Amino acid sequence: MTPSQTITFENVSRFYGEVLGVNRVSLSVPPGVTSLVGPNGSGKTTLMNLMTGLLRPTEGRIQVLGIPPGHPERLCRLIGYCTQFDAFPKGLTGYRFLYAFLRMHGMNHDECDARTKAALELVGLSDAANRTVGAYSKGMRQRVKLAQAIAHEPQVVVLDEPLNGLDPMARAEAIALFRQWGEQGKHVIVSSHILHEVDRISDQVILLSQGYVVAEGQIQGVRSEVKDQPMQILVRCDRPGLLASRLFQQDHVVEARIQGDGKNLLLRTKDADSFYLLLNRVILDSGLEVESVAPADDDVNSVYQYLIGSEGATV
């Protein structure tokens, strides 16, 4: 892809005095939904503030669809940012909050009015448009921030913990919107601690730890990059004890546990490719009846736990 189609970080670092924000980050983020995953303090918000121009890098170079953050007027039209923190002018209604924001983009009254109403309807706040934002619930405040982020129809939507405070129905609707925007070719950057939902949202993930990018890509590829953690594989068969005894003859199989109804065997291996080859041979030699074989940790939550487990962090 060309620079005008991606968000690029080239050896980007950001320090707050002596404190590390992010260090030596090099990324090329394509269109679609990209989730930032990592413990608190890992650098997710710093990365978002850098790509939206709210922070400047200590060193390195950033371009958002070919535009450097040093051009805030152009960047503002390109990006919509929903932060995790509330900051609303006193006394404004939901309608006036969005309308005033759009007027700053230079739109005329009719366009501001139409886009404000459309954005409020999209997030389910049409009935609350004339209520003051200060009287909104946490979930409603979250939705009006989301409406502001997308009211000017940006090509890049940056969402910092956007699902916080939403009830299950609103959360499902928000996830559907994120997927829709990604399918339209927009760049949707999401940070979230609701990890089973990150799996549903994401086309790709970026794993962060202590200011560094640990891994990036589709989750299956990211899992293979966490090389110091054995892969877990669940095999369901008629004689799991026999299978475990055969597999344990190999050094790369480090654990085997029978689970559930006695037909599930959970294995941990340091070499998945060798394991699958060995499994095929054992099945042929012993006549085992195998119902299913599947990775047990091929998701964001498992990879995330590998990261925070070593750092002692909590979600």
Question: Could you characterize what this model shows?
Answer:
With 315 residues, this protein is an alpha/beta fold. It is 37% helix and 27% strand. The chain has helices at residues 44-51, 72-78, 94-103, 109-122, 138-150, 168-183, 195-201, 219-225, 240-247, 272-286, 300-311, and strands spanning 7-16, 19-29, 32-37, 59-64, 79-82, 156-160, 187-191, 204-209, 212-217, 231-237, 253-259, 264-269, 290-295. Strand 11 (253-259) and strand 12 (264-269) form a beta hairpin.
How is this structure best summarized?
The protein has 315 residues and is α/β, with parallel strands linked by helices. The protein is built from 11 helices and 13 strands.
Write the layout of secondary structure elements.
Blueprint: E1 7-16, E2 19-29, E3 32-37, H1 44-51, E4 59-64, H2 72-78, E5 79-82, H3 94-103, H4 109-122, H5 138-150, E6 156-160, H6 168-183, E7 187-191, H7 195-201, E8 204-209, E9 212-217, H8 219-225, E10 231-237, H9 240-247, E11 253-259, E12 264-269, H10 272-286, E13 290-295, H11 300-311
Parallel strand pairs: 3-7, 3-8, 5-6, 6-7
Antiparallel strand pairs: 1-2, 1-4, 8-9, 10-12, 10-13, 11-12
Helix pairs in contact: 3-4, 4-5
